[in-house]
Amino acid sequence: MTAIAAMTALTGCGGGDSVDTADERATTTARAAEKKARDELTPDAVRGDVRSAAAAAGSGRLGFLDTSKAGNPCRVIASLRTGDAPKRESVDSVLAVLKARGWGQREQMLADDTDQAWRLKKNGWEMILGAGKVPEGAGIVFDADASGKACGVPMPSRPAASDIAPPEPPALP
Description:
Blueprint: H1 2-11, H2 19-39, H3 43-57, E1 61-65, E2 75-82, H4 88-100, E3 104-111, E4 116-122, E5 125-134, E6 137-145, H5 161-164
Antiparallel strand pairs: 1-2, 2-6, 3-4, 4-5, 5-6
């Protein structure tokens, strides 16, 4: 019996974690949390990607739509207004910056002499990048959506049923 107790004490087996095992578990948990934070893409991070890409175009005025008031905080829409239809070189520069920032080019949706469009993807987000001329003007449009997933910001909640249901009629005595 004494031999078993001595062997258990020497090998570290016998109910309870060794310090090394607890440290390994804490390190693994910290790494997983760090990876999740790196992989989670917030609307602010998407706006940063769009700003960097728009700067690469070399001209135009960038503007963002406020989509949070429309009930979709996980969507980013921006337009870079240019005087004429963007040149292919400018659009290629925009695509290169987005690719360097992790947006994968999934497919080119449209390409002709004046209009171009791509679908890009990054960490659960999809972006449609369109460039060309429309009756309102010319430029590059960025439309990114988290595809219904949480994106690091609180999603709007639905009103309680009691807030939208009509009140009960009064009961007669």
